[in-house]
C-alpha cells in the first residue's frame, strides 16, 4: 500500500463523535520515522499554518515577555523541546526583537526532516539559531538554558514520561518553564476536526489533529501530573482555542 493510499485509509477512520471521557493516546502519522519526506514536509507546513491562524504562539510569548519585563532582562536563552519545523522559536525571536529583547534560541527534535525545515526557515529569516537532533526523554537536555518551552508536545507522551520530563525541565531551566498544549474536550475535538480541514490541505494534519485531541489532557489531569513531578506551585490556565498554558517559575 502506498503512503497516499494509507493516508486516505486512515482519514476515513477518524471518528466524528469519539469517547473523550478518558485519554486515548495513539501514534500519530507524523511520528512515523518511515513517513515519506515530501508528505512530512507538507504536513509541517500545514501544522505551521494552523499555528499561525490559531495564534497560539502568543500564549508562550506572554509569560516570557512578562518575566523579562519584571526582571529588566534584555537578553535570555530559550530552549524548545519538540520544536518541529521551528516556526514557534523563530516567531518568538522575531517578536522579542521587536520589543527590544534578544532571545538566544535552541530547538530540539527527533525528526531530521523537521530539523532541516527549521534550519532552512531560520536561514531564510537570517536569524541566529541552533537546532539539535535528540531524544529529550533519554538524553541530557542542553545546559545553560534560562527558559524551556514546549508547544503541542506533551500530548505525544505517556504520563510517566511527562512527569519525568517536567522534572528534568525544572532541573535544567534557570528561571522559567512554559508549555502549551491541547485540552481534551468535545468542543476542542470539533474545532480541530473542522479547523484542520479548512486551514490545511495535508491529510496528515487532517488525521493527526483529531488524534492529538483524543490523546490530550484535561486541566485536572495535567495538574495531577505537575503535582507528581513536584511542581505543584505551577500555574495552569485555559485559553482559546481549547488550549492550556502551564507555567512554572523557579523560586528566588
Q: How would you describe what is shown here?
A:
With 252 residues, the chain is an alpha/beta fold. It has one domain: Vaccinia Virus protein VP39 (Rossmann fold, 3-Layer(aba) Sandwich), CATH 3.40.50.150. It is 46% helix and 19% strand. It has a seven-stranded mixed beta sheet, sandwiched between helices. α3 packs across α4 and α7 packs antiparallel against α8. It is globular and about 50 Å long. It starts with a helix and ends with a strand. About 3% of the residues have low confidence.
- Structural class, by secondary structure, is alpha/beta
Count of helical stretches: 9
Low-confidence stretches: 5-12
CATH topology: Rossmann fold
What would the principal axes of the Cα set say about the shape?
globular
- At CATH's second level, what is the architecture? 3-Layer(aba) Sandwich
The separation of the N and C termini measures 57 Å
Protein name: Methyltransferase domain-containing protein
Organism: Gimesia aquarii
InterPro entries: Methyltransf_25 (IPR041698), SAM-dependent_MTases_sf (IPR029063)
GO molecular function, one term: methyltransferase activity
Amino acid at each position: 500500500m502506498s503512503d497516499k493510499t494509507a493516508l486516505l485509509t486512515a482519514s476515513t477512520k477518524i471518528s466524528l463523535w469519539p469517547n473523550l471521557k478518558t485519554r486515548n493516546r495513539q501514534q500519530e502519522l507524523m511520528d512515523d520515522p518511515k513517513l515519506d519526506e515530501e508528505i512530512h514536509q507538507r504536513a509541517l507546513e500545514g501544522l505551521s499554518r494552523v499555528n499561525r491562524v490559531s495564534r497560539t504562539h502568543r500564549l508562550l510569548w506572554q509569560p516570557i515577555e512578562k518575566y523579562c519585563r519584571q526582571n529588566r532582562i534584555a537578553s535570555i536563552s530559550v530552549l524548545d523541546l519538540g520544536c518541529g519545523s521551528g516556526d514557534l522559536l523563530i516567531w518568538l525571536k522575531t517578536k522579542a526583537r521587536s520589543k527590544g529583547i534578544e532571545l538566544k534560541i535552541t530547538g530540539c527534535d527527533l525528526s531530521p526532516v523537521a530539523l532541516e525545515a527549521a534550519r532552512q526557515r531560520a536561514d531564510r529569516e537570517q536569524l541566529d539559531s541552533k537546532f539539535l537532533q535528540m531524544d529529550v526523554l533519554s538524553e541530557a537536555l542542553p545546559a545553560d538554558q534560562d527558559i524551556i518551552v514546549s508547544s503541542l508536545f506533551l500530548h505525544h507522551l505517556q504520563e510517566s514520561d511527562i512527569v519525568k520530563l517536567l522534572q528534568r525541565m525544572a532541573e535544567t531551566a534557570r528561571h522559567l518553564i512554559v508549555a502549551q498544549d491541547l485540552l481534551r474536550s468535545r468542543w476542542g475535538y470539533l474545532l480541530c476536526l473542522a479547523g484542520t480541514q479548512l486551514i490545511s490541505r495535508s491529510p496528515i494534519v487532517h488525521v493527526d489533529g483529531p488524534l492529538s485531541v483524543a490523546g490530550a489532557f484535561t486541566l485536572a489531569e495535567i495538574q495531577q501530573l505537575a503535582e507528581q513531578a513536584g511542581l505543584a506551585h505551577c500555574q495552569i490556565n485555559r485559553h482559546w482555542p481549547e488550549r492550556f498554558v502551564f507555567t512554572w517559575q523557579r523560586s528566588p
